[in-house]
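Deliverable D4.2, example record:
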Amino acid sequence: MATNLERASKVAKNVEMEGIFLRSTKVETGFEPDDLPQDVEMEIQYRTGMQRRQNKQNNSQPEVAVNVEFRFRMKGSQGDESIQVISLDAEYLLVYLLNPNAEIEEDCFKHFAEVNGPYNAWPYWRELVHSVTGRVGLPGIVVPVFRPAAVEVKGSENVLPED
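Output generated by the structure prediction step:
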């Protein structure tokens, strides 16, 4: 049985990155810079979506548009009280030009979006988290490197829960 990485690679071999675009971002804090909780925990989640479409400049050039939504949460406690230290959401659009002669099974595109989308957007996400956390009065948080895991293809779940 094939893995998600093997299925994604069938698309990856047939695309070129056209661009990575920040579509939206939102940040909220719930602490005073001089009163940061001692005990904090962090959580990072993401989810992806994908659409195949024609390039607007060259209608004969197919492209793959991958949407990646990221969520960063830091919660802390002060005594018995739990507070949301920071909430940061961002959405990126990644556009890939697809080889018009490529013959690829449809489910490979889903795996490509789930693997390559976050992988390619991750450095931009890491920079955003580091920059924003520093600007709101936290020590700049360094998000770990993204390492996609190989799993057998039986269907996959989004990491970020539906709203």
